[in-house]
Predict the structure.
Amino acid sequence: MTATINRRSARRVSKVDRFLTLIRVFLVGLIVVGILAFLAQQFAPNNPFTRWRNPDAMGLSADQFKGLLMSGLSQGAMYGLIALGYSMVYGVLGFINFAHGEVFMAGAMTGFIASEKFNASGLWESNFLLCLVLIVLMAIGISTLMAVLMERVAYRPLRNSPRLIPLITSIGVSFFIQNAVMGLFGPATKSYPQLPEWLAKQRSILTFEIAGTKILVLVVAAVSMAGLWFLVERTKTGKAMRAVAEDKEIASLMGINVNRIIVTTFAVGGAMAGVAGILWGLLFRSVTHMTGFLPGIKAFTAAVVGGIGNLGGAMAGGIALGSAESIAPLVILEPLGVPGVSQLKDAVAFTVLVLVLLFKPTGLFGERLSSEDRA
Amino acid sequence: MSATMSAPSSTSSTSPAASSAPALFDLDWRRIGKWGGLCAFAIALISLIGMPVGLDRRTIIEGRLSLGYLALIWLPLLFGYVVSKRVVLEGVDTPDPGARDVLAGLCTGLLAGLGPLLLILGIDNFNLRKPLVNWSPQLLELLTFGRDIGYGIGAWLAICAVLGMLGSTMHVLPKDVRRVVSIVTFGLLFISVLEAAIDDLSEGFGLEGLTDAMYAKRGGLTVKYSIILVVVLGVLAVVTKGRVKGATNHYRGLKGAERKRASVLLFAGVAVLCIVLPMFLGKIMNELLANVGLFLLLALGLNIVVGLAGILDLGYVAFFAVGGYTTAVLTSAESPFFAPELHFGFALIVVVLIAGLTGLVIGAPVIRMRGDYLAIVTLGFGEIIRLLFMSDWLKPYFGGAQGITNVPHVDLGFAVVKGTDPRSVFYMILVFCVLAIYVSWRLQGSRLGRAWMAIREDEQVAEAMGINTVNTKLMAFVVGAMMAALSGAILAAKVGSVFPNSFMILVSIIILVVVIVGGMGNILGVMVGSFVLIGVLGGPRQPGLLQEFQSYKLLIYGALLVFMMLQRPEGLVPSARRSQELHQEEFLQDVWLKGEDHEEEEAAEEAAAEEEAEATAEGTGDPA
């Protein structure tokens, strides 16, 4: 009797499972073949496979590869900073704050407005470092304010509703902020003022040619991460945050003001997004009202890759995603003969998300969620 | 103790006014400050987003009121209403509405007036044009009514105060008066907003004379006719009092054969209206109706996925794109790689098959994920499909960013459906919509539909009841995908071409808003949602009746989504079951408050209903 039941249930789920296995095998096969083709192309440019798929392949020089890696790393560090906000909010409240990308955009926009004003008054050129500190502080302020307001207005009333309800709300918030910013500041692309020569120029560190701005991005990301680690692991507030993430009810019984901790979580996530916004502005020097959309989704991907709720994981996931996004098109797709690979950068990022969820849904470093959120 | 207890009760029994209205100025100042400040902020925000200036061209009442001003003045009215609204709790003494509430509204309005006041002073003294594009002299002129600053400030303070007061007066008025006032206000607004539609319709029926007199040359109602309309609407409101509710109750109360007859009559009426109305409408209105139909078809599909099965699919646009591209490849002669130039009808069969297959392929990997992960992953898929259609890689097959053009008209033998003749497109869409409505309606009550709803309510329990959740959810995906693909196919035939940029993620989100505003899981709700939103505000690229809203409609969609989720998650036309799910806590609380005697009552009622049902069954059974 039990045997038949087991067999039947096994048979019933197997169709979808078999299909999933097929997808897994296909994706892994694609990646392996792509990398092998890349290696073949590097070491023996005249091999038959390369000639068949991609006759005018140039291959990558070591410098090109390093350059790709560096831009991937710096972009990934930015994704990591945004991902921290997703991860923390998911850890505490168990829902995806879809509008977090907009918080990041607000930071970038604040930076643009402030730097424009500084540039007009000449302070930007005469004392760049002071300006940088000021715009970072302003961006942190605006982004934090925005995240906290969002929580207060849109999410707090929905604290106990089904999980999808706050997600849908946050999509609405995201849409609203995007279009309000477009209405307020106009739809045109806005460019940050020219960066000073000493910062923007290429430097060579350990044979890596890297632009100064990218170093700055990496350093700032590392400092922010260290600060966040200190806050979460070494202070009382951080302890309270971890307690609330573990179990809200018990935490409140222990005398923790859950509402205040949730607001703090949003504020810290917002501050990180604000910093990331300024870094984005310095790195790409342009911002529009749509700036937050794709980086937002990619940052969420980074959070999932690293394991949601896991702060170190979010940063690592961001860096992994950033590098994958910048290297994979040229290393895996180009040798397979796909033209115009740089257009597929975003598609690669989403594929990484699907891959991670197919192979290890808990992320590379394991998720940290309360038991009710894990369901 | 007993003395203090008896003292208030005795005063209240002797002079109820004294206890229910403690003192005129004993207001909840914090509440007033909060709502008034919010209102001032909202007015300033809307002004700076550019709505008043952008919408000023559209007049509502000739020479008196434009849509631009209306975009600002509804705020103090609403906030005045909100500030005096109170929650009535059982066992807590709530004072009767009275002069205090009106005063609260007045204060809120005055505070709200600070918004335009500060804005006027700010624009006059500082130049913030650089980041804020709408910090312009036009805005100043609009805010000061074209006169000097003092006049503008005074006028705004007065307007806001009066409107706030009017808003709160709504609580004081008796119920009947309130009903008449709101019907007149909304009716007037409705008639002036629907100007284009009414104009068009009257032209079809040969009543140009009436509309020419009613509407001014450059749009908007004339003053004379707005007064006449107010009177007419007021009389109508008084006459119809209680009738509408009575009729619906009567319909609901009908049983058996009578109910069936009434339903058939109702259905026939709607059918005749749908078939006859477009004949009297002009090109623009038919185009509008066709767009509404297109999005209704999409929304019906999403309603199955989100509303019935509870799967939040944000990449729904992918299936729309697949439908459009499949049709284009199969029918167009310009298709770059494979151009069999099939007839639209044959293409449709392939479209449905391919859409189902895509639904399976996209659905299988995501179906077991957590609900919110699924949302983001499907969003990713929606974006990937657009990026792939746009990429150079697939350009030889799908034409890249230029898309596929020259999709032929649909030749039905007796008629040709083509984009330049929106009426024919509308009829074609009508056929598909009716089909989709029928399918959704039948599915809702079927075993599959009930399984979907069970999964939506609680997946684990559903699984324990023996439902194969994976397959059932996949079915929802597939059915939704097929409907979206049909809509995409019609779009391709209607527009005559497909471009990757017609299939942005935006489309998914707008359809989601339509489904949610209308009412998740309710076919009628979805229909209402698409008529109201797509018809009035417009789709992602298609303009609605309020063409001036083109640049603000996404903003409004976003705000609507948040507002609905916070205030009315079950939508405008809720499905009974869904709203119970969403308000489970309140529902349980009500049951608990009502207590056991209520349960007994219910049991008695049920018994009575059963008896009745038996009686009717016998009654109908006898003649047979």
